[in-house]
């Protein structure tokens, strides 16, 4: 099902939204990986999933899992629930396990969509998961998905990976990594 939806989404993004993609060569072909992107609309997770050469697992707010049919669909697309507004230990363990098993995890460092479209402050979760799992992080910028135009042009830019060793997560290390990720995303947005 994942492959089918990926093909459909690529067709939609390329034809209707004239999507531009750059930096795919920066994505490591194997090993635990986190895609860290700005988040400006509901289009963002499918956009990342469509143009990633590897399947992506996403944390999604638990409210999306209340409908049995929709819950089944998004689980088939590698989404798993997270309780927002709290330190959801189960979701964090799931995220770390995904990365430790050499898979790709998609996260939005801000924790939620930016209503203004401006890049916000990073929550500590992404950096903590990356440090505990020893993940590579690919900063990613999404442009145009929040446009009010009928058929705006979308763009996705994958930056160069930041490689981290598996380590204990202390507050200072988490803050430094969070700042570095957000700085790279901002650079990609401004490029």
Helices, strands, pairings?
Layout: H1 2-15, E1 20-22, E2 33-37, H2 44-51, E3 56-61, H3 68-76, E4 79-82, H4 89-100, E5 104-107, H5 125-133, E6 136-143, E7 155-158, E8 162-163, H6 171-190
Parallel strand pairs: 1-7, 2-5, 2-6, 3-4, 3-5
Antiparallel strand pairs: 6-7, 6-8
Structure description:
By secondary structure, the chain is an alpha/beta fold. It has a single domain (2-190), classed as Glycerol-3-phosphate (1)-acyltransferase. The protein is built from 6 helices and 8 strands, in the order αββαβαβαβαβββα. Strands 1, 2, 3, 4, 5, 6, 7 and 8 form an 8-stranded mixed beta sheet that branches. Helix 3 (68-76) links the parallel strand 3 and strand 4 (79-82). Helix 1 (2-15) crosses helix 2 (44-51) and helix 4 (89-100) packs across helix 5. The termini are far apart. 38% of the residues are buried.
Mean pLDDT: 92
Query: How many structural units, i.e. domains?
Result: 1
Low-confidence stretches: none
Shape: globular
CATH topology: Glycerol-3-phosphate (1)-acyltransferase
The helix/strand class is alpha/beta
CATH architecture call: 3-Layer(aba) Sandwich
Q: N-to-C terminal Cα separation, in Å? A: 35 Å
Query: Level of helix content?
Result: 25-40%
How many strands appear in the DSSP assignment?
Answer: 8
Count the helices. How many? 6
Annotated CATH homologous superfamily = Glycerol-3-phosphate (1)-acyltransferase
Largest sheet: 8 strands, mixed
Q: What is the name of the CATH class?
A: Alpha Beta
Fraction in beta strands: 15-25%
The succession of helices and strands, N to C, reads HEEHEHEHEHEEEH
Nearest-angstrom radius of gyration? 16 Å
